[in-house]
Amino acid sequence: MAAEKAEALVLRTTDWSDTSRIATLWTREFGKIRALAKGARRLKSPFESALDLLTHCSIVFLRKSSGSLDLLTEARVVQRFGRLHTDLSALYAAYYVAELLTDWTEDYDPHPPLFDEALATLQDVGLSSPQSSEIGPRIMRFESMLLRELGFNPTLETCGACGEALSGPAQWFSAAAGGVVCIRCSPALREKRPLSTPAWHALRVFQAGGDKWREIEDTKVRAELRQVLSHYVTFRSGRRPRLLPYLGS
User: Fold this and answer.
1) 219-230 tens-digit pLDDT
2) Contact predicate 193/228, CB 8 Å
3) Per DSSP, what are the bridge partners of residue 25?
4) Most buried of 58, 69, 118, 240, CB within 10 angstroms?
5) What percent of the chain has pLDDT over 90?
6) 192 phi, psi to nearest 5 deg
7) Where are the beta strands (DSSP E) in the chain?
8) CATH number of the domain at 82-153+196-246, out of 1.20.1440.120, 3.30.1440.10, 3.90.1150.10, 3.30.390.30?
9) CA torsion, points 142, 49, 13, 230, in degrees to nearest 10?
């Protein structure tokens, strides 16, 4: 059985026995994996503290057959995010990233751009000294990237109900329709919410990628975006993410 090497983020750990743990890891090369780390609970663990939650590490593991846990043989710290220990808003944001990666991705379904975005998000909120007002938009940028990469991008240029191109700025957003809806279709939709023109433009900025999202400074627009994305993510996942109530805009 060949050993595999990967770059990973620690999403979750669960005690397995008196000496071992099961680690859920988001890797750049293989996507999400679940691996048994034998001896990880010992005082002198062979993994030291590389399996601490939200640690960026390099790992070596043995891939087992379908339905079985992989076997983690080595884990070394690449990077820690020290601000998460001193800034509660940054910690909640990082936990939310881990929750989305855990719940929205499938085992062995790699998405290298999503790994890079998750790592960049953790670096932005966990290494630098951001103001709390900067953390909210950074997380919304991550959500937008996750939705695009996993095929759940909301439609913003055409009506999600009829498919016709919008004749002007969107006025309504419907999670059930998969994005914005035109004025003609909106009366027939029970599930919809008003969408201001500035918020519609801001959603397009987030969806386009790049760094222009950093220029969205209007607090009212940020608050509206937070509500729209929270509702859309909740609808698509079928439940409200546990960390959503702790996020700012």
Assistant:
1) 999 999 999 999
2) yes
3) 10, 33
4) 118
5) 77
6) -160, 160
7) 3-15, 21-27, 31-37, 56-62, 70-79, 172-174, 179-181, 193-194
8) 1.20.1440.120
9) -20
Domain ranges of the chain: 3-79, 82-153+196-246
**Phi/psi of residue 2, each to 5°?**
-75, 145
CA atoms within 13 A on the CB side of 171: 8
* Residue at 12: amino acid letter: R
Sheet holding 193-194, edge to edge: 179-181, 172-174, 193-194
Per-residue pLDDT of 19-34, as tens digits, reads 888 999 999 999 999 9
C-alpha pair distances (Å), 37 with each of 13, 29, 121: 10, 19, 27
The CATH superfamily holding the domain 3-79 is Nucleic acid-binding proteins (2.40.50.140)
Q: How far apart are CA 146 and CA 98, in angstroms?
A: 12
Interior/surface letters 52-84, b for 16+ CB within 10 angstroms, e for the rest: eebbbbebebeeeeeeeebbbbebeeeebbebb
Q: Examine the pLDDT at 218 and tell me if it is beyond 80.
A: yes
| pTM exceeds 0.85, yes or no | yes
Place of tokens 């030291």: 48
The total number of residues written for the chain in this structure: 249
Place of tokens 């079928």: 238
